[in-house]
Design a protein that fits this description.
heterodimer; A: mainly alpha; three-stranded antiparallel β-sheet; two-stranded antiparallel ribbon; 9 helices; 7 strands; about 60% helix; about 10% strand; B: alpha+beta; nine-stranded antiparallel β-sheet; five-stranded antiparallel β-sheet; 5 helices
């Protein structure tokens, strides 16, 4: 099989394959395993894991490609429609894949006649593995998903989370994303075995952490991927995920904590506004980038913490 | 919960396995490959027809312009032409490093290039000027941050200048950031996009080092067709400021805030193989408020430009002269930043001038 010229390839058992695709395959396989384990944990019917995996894969594929084609402006405008179907030529949106997989879990829930929240919880438990693998796969693409130079010409600070070239040292935001996705996976494993969890908790946590983390990582990266003018379009999708997570957390809250609910939503909207301001300041002012990112992290942490507080509940309540 | 029959379970499992196993053969990368980007850029649409203009106008010396400002002569020493030292204008070949003995108090001089740098206060504006004279057109070069012209990688101007052994460098038009679909952009003979654009002006630098300006693509298509192998670099940012020795009237509808004071950068041709690069400081205190397009055009005209063109301004406007290449301790001899508030930012490309004198001929 002839692979695309210019793509990064590897040889696996004598067969040439795309490096990016290979690690995505490993991530998808790991995620499928996680879905199977979680379905068994929920005592679901045999074959449920297959249906969930298939729907998540199909919708993830479609939405990832669709997201890229709609958001890609590197050609100076919209991708020509005829190119949307040339999937081997590259072009995938991670945020599109995440939304697609969540939509797939919703469709599978309807097919399997299980609560949609449970389907989303299963997807949420598996997706961090796929995200982590996809971020590792990005590591094979030179200059992809890296930050601004940390210091002009600097050779200091080289480590696993940084990369270097002739112009300086950069944060390897793809590797930071990989590490954060694995941490999220561990958080979700921990909350899954918690006794007083309810259907939907994992899905909400996933949306809160992925939304906030995605905003931060998209801000850090400086490779103009899926960018329109100075707006990173995937950041907008992650912002939607954060707000979606907060709305679901408010709806999940049955303990009549109205003040906390309102505060959480306001904090979420404010955090997105602050992030927009920080983005502007990063490009248009000489303010310290470290200080600006501290402000951004603090602003994003507030709605995430409030969202988590909304999920906390007293006593044991097993759904 | 729905019960799922065994054949369905098997079919679903096979489909899942097929989708997962197909990934290494389908997912080539998260972004389009550079080859795909280039192909898609070039296949989209066709060039618009434009009226023919007299692009072959003779270039006059700097004395042609009748401005009020002093025009600095960089002809203190004779430049020597060495055709055998000329660099390719069809790739990003890096010129030799500058000779450390060539640096002067306010510039650099050797037998192939003379650079004089100065800062003037003109009508309350702080104007940083670099006068450049070269012996061969291949010394006027561009560099990009990525490995290919289709790359959108960005890097500091200083970093790109250093990697290019530049004597002096300035920002280009940050083409990786331009959102327009129709652009006409070349770097070192390599076409990035070949479209005309009815709202933007174009600067073409041919392989003789001569500037050709096209207002809103008028005549661009014909010129490009007739000179397709003679285009070294092309920029579509603008506007054109001085055309054939005359100030172009300001188009107040042009992009890039023409009637507001902003940091600006511009490049002009003052004669055969003679150029001037300008950075006007802005967004600062008194004296560094920036310039309007009209003011910039007047300055470029007064500096003796026959052709002059506005490049990206704001915190893209930047000019740097480096020294210390031979000591492997490259430092900034001059560094002018247009934006006094935000400083500089990484960019996709630079314009720079290099020397042609090989290191092994240094005396």
């Amino acid at each position: 099989m002839k692979l695309l010229d210019g793509a990064i390839t590897m040889t696996l058992a004598g067969t040439e394959v795309y490096a990016f695709g290979l690690f995505c395959m490993i991530g998808a396989a790991a995620a499928a395993m996680a879905v199977w384990v979680l379905c068994r944990g929920y005592n679901m019917e045999k074959g449920s894991a297959g249906i969930l995996t298939l729907m998540m894969l199909l919708c993830g594929f479609i939405c990832s490609r669709l997201g890229f084609c709609l958001m890609n402006r590197s050609l100076g405008g919209m991708m020509p429609f005829s190119s949307w179907f040339r999937i081997t030529e590259g072009g995938w949106s991670l945020s599109g894949m995440i939304l697609g997989a969540l939509a797939g879990s919703r469709i599978a829930s309807a097919i399997l006649r299980i609560p949609p929240k449970r389907g989303m919880d299963i997807a949420a438990g598996a997706l961090p593995l796929m995200i982590s693998a996809a971020k590792y796969a990005e590591d094979k693409i030179p200059d992809f998903d890296i930050s601004r130079p940390l210091a002009e010409g600097s050779s200091a600070g080289a480590g696993f989370l940084t990369v270097q070239d002739k112009y300086g040292t950069y944060l390897a935001t793809r590797r930071i994303g990989m590490v954060l996705a694995m941490i999220l996976f561990l958080i979700l494993v921990f909350t899954t075995i918690r006794k007083n969890r309810k259907d939907g908790d994992q899905g909400i946590l996933f949306l809160l952490f992925t939304g906030a983390g995605g905003i931060l990582l998209e801000s850090l990266r400086y490779d103009h991927f899926l960018e329109f003018s100075f707006v990173r379009l995937e950041m907008v999708i992650y912002a939607v995920m954060l707000i979606w997570g907060l709305v679901l957390a408010v709806r999940q809250n049955k303990e009549n904590r109205k003040v906390l609910c309102r505060t959480a939503i306001i904090a979420g909207v404010a955090a997105i506004g602050i992030c927009g301001g920080v983005e502007f300041a990063l490009d248009r002012t000489s303010m310290s980038h470290v200080i600006l990112y501290v402000i951004m992290i603090a602003a994003l942490a507030v709605p995430v913490v409030l969202g988590c507080l909304l999920l906390s509940r007293k006593g044991t309540e097993v759904s | 919960m729905t019960k799922i029959k065994l054949p369905v379970r098997i079919l679903v499992a096979v489909l899942c396995a097929a989708l997962i196993l197909a990934m290494p053969f389908v997912l080539s990368g998260p972004d389009l490959t550079d080859e795909t980007k280039m192909r898609l850029m070039h296949q989209e649409g066709g060039d618009d027809e434009g009226e023919e203009i007299d692009f072959g106008r003779l270039l006059f010396s700097a004395a042609y312009a009748e401005g009020d400002l002093d025009v600095v002569s960089v002809d203190e020493g004779e430049l020597v032409s060495h055709p055998d030292w000329a660099l390719s204008q069809d790739d990003f070949t890096v010129p030799p490093i500058p000779n450390p003995t060539g640096y002067t108090e306010n510039g650099y001089s050797d037998e192939t290039i003379q650079v004089t740098v100065e800062t003037r206060s003109i009508d309350g504006m702080t104007v940083n000027i670099a006068w450049v004279k070269i012996s061969d057109p291949s010394q006027l070069r561009t560099a990009i941050a990525g490995n290919k012209v289709s790359s959108t990688k960005t890097a500091p101007v200083t970093g790109m200048a250093k990697a290019s052994n530049a004597v002096i460098a300035m920002n280009g038009d940050y083409y990786g950031q331009l959102p327009e679909k129709k652009l006409f952009e070349f770097r070192m003979g390599q076409k990035i996009r070949g479209k005309t654009n009815k709202i933007k002006d174009t600067l073409i630098i041919d392989k003789d080092g001569d500037f050709h300006l096209f207002v809103k693509s008028k005549g661009l298509a014909d010129f490009a067709k007739e000179n397709k192998d003679n285009i070294a670099n092309a920029f579509m940012f603008g506007p054109a400021l001085v055309i054939d020795g005359e100030i172009k009237e300001t188009d107040t509808e042009y992009a890039y805030a023409p009637v507001y004071k902003n940091p600006r950068s511009a490049i002009g041709q003052t004669g055969k193989l003679s150029y001037v690069m300008v950075i006007i400081e802005g967004r600062g205190d008194e004296g560094t408020a920036g310039a309007k397009h009209e003011e910039l055009a007047q300055i470029m005209y007064d500096l003796g430009c026959i052709q002059a063109y506005n490049l990206d301004g704001g915190n893209t406007a930047e000019m740097v002269m480096l020294e210390g290449y031979s000591e492997k301790n490259v430092t900034e001899k001059f560094h002018f930043k247009g934006d006094q508030a935000a400083g500089t930012r990484n960019q996709t490309d630079i314009i720079y001038f290099g020397t042609l004198v090989p290191e092994d001929t240094w005396q």
